[in-house]
Structure formats: structure tokens, C-alpha cells
Amino acid sequence: MGTALGQTLIVMPAYNESQSVGRVVSETRATLPGITVLVVDDGSTDGTSDVARAAGALVATLPFNLGVGGAMRVGFRYAAEHGFHAVVQIDADGQHDPATVAALLERLDDYDIVIGARFAGEGAYVMRGPRRWASWVLARVISRTARSKLTDTTSGFRASGPRAIELFSREYPAEYLGDTIESLVLACRAGLTATQVPTAMRHRSEGAPSQSPVRAAIYLARATLALMFAYARPKAKAPSTSEVPA
User: Fold this and answer.
1) What is the pLDDT of residue 97?
2) Which DSSP letter does residue 180 get?
3) How far, rounded to the nearest angstrom, does the alpha carbon of residue 54 sit from its chain's CA centroid?
4) What is the crossing angle of helices 162-171 and 68-81, to 10°?
5) Closest C-alpha to 163, from 106, 100, 241
6) 235 or 126: which carries more pLDDT confidence?
7) How many CB atoms within 10 Å of residue 78?
């Protein structure tokens, strides 16, 4: 059946995305009627908050840049305090297709976390060099912890159900890659379940990602450290039934 759109919160971290966030919010609301969109303006210095609000989103404006993990923590706390049954993270640059959200929500009937996976047979997204190597290693290691085959553990396009919302509202990692690697390891070690659905990534609507070899090598090193820190953290306590909305 999937979680109803009226019980789902779209959380959209945004840092200086004034050129794209309005278009992404509008498309998301038009594609998913009745859904609530919360843009977390992560300390932007442009007009991101105003543009997002004009497009119909709720807006939380942070006084300074915390990174995606810090922005998502705000989103999960809002979702827990307002009784949402599902949170879906969508990037403000237009790479995540809101039409795929329904497929993620459908799988929340059986899993706590559903990842929109870029390397599972949909679309033509390509990652090469150290970033691809890091992604492959991370997927193999975290799949063992999740006891489920995951091919894209660094995807930020993911849905979280009631138990994940409760856990993440308390303990969401704000460090580098906390929104992908650490949060997934944290949840799976606490006993939450995870799976993935194939997803086609779109091109950024504005700007361009950096693919330089130096940045890719730095990413590999930082991803390795993030994985080590994730497993070094004390295990989190799994939410009880009484802690999640019925």
C-alpha cells in the first residue's frame, strides 16, 4: 500500500540553491499532491529561503552551514514532533525525480529504510575512479551489517519509516557523510532493516559537480574514515513500538 502522501514529509537540504530550489519544490508538490515539503536552508547566503517559501515549502533557516547531516537532523526532529510516518530526502539540485517517491514509500511497508539506488539497473548514472571504488567497498561492508544486498549506500535519495524517524530524530550523525554512510550503519546496527529500489538519477538543474581526480581521492579517504567512525560509535537503542506513531 505504501505510506500516504499526507503522512509523508519531504526534507530538502539546501545550501545556496536559489537557482534550482523553487523549481524542485514546485515539481515535487505537483507530482505528489498533498505532500509537505520542508526545505532546510543550511546557512545559505543567497535567497534560497525566500525562493523555497514562495514555491510553497515550509522553510527552516539555519544561522550557519551545518552540512547535509545537520540539516537532515532538523528535518527528522520536525517529522517526529509533527507525527509524520515517513521522511523522504530529496536534493534541492533536481537530481532526484519525485515521481520515484511512490516506489520508495511502497517498500516502507516491509522495511525501515529504502534507498533509491543509482547502480541497480535504472538510468545511465556513471561513477568512475576512486569514488566508484569507495562506493563498491562501502556497499559490500554495509550490506553485511544490513543483511541485505545494497549497491548504493552513498545515495542521498532515501525514505525512512516511523522507527527510523524516531531514531534519527535523536541520533542523526551530522559529520561528513553522516547523512549516508553513518546513518545507515547506525540504523542497521540498531536492528532496523534496509533495502533499495532502482532509481535513475537526473542531471543537476544548475551548477556542475566536481569530478577532479584529486577531489575523488580525497573522497575515498574521507569515506573510509567515515566508515571507521560509523562502526566505532556505540550501538544505538532501537525504538520501541510505543515510541513511533500508530
Assistant:
1) 92
2) I
3) 23
4) 120
5) 241
6) 235
7) 20
Alpha-helical (H) ranges within the chain are 21-31, 48-54, 68-81, 101-107, 129-146, 162-171, 183-189, 213-232
Residues 6 or more apart whose CB falls under 8 angstroms from that of 44 comprise: 14, 15, 16, 17, 18
Round the CA-based radius of gyration of the chain to a whole number and report it: 17
| pTM (two decimals) | 0.86
C-beta separation of 8 from 84 below 8 A: yes
pLDDT at 103 over 70: yes
Helical ranges in 56-128 per DSSP H:
68-81, 101-107
- Interstrand relation of 36-41 and 58-61 (parallel, antiparallel or unpaired): parallel
Query: How is residue 235 annotated by DSSP?
Result: P
Cell triple for 102: 511512490
Pair 87, 160: CB distance under 8 Å:
yes
Q: For 83-97, write each residue's pLDDT tens digit.
A: 999 999 999 998 899
Cell of 82: 509533527
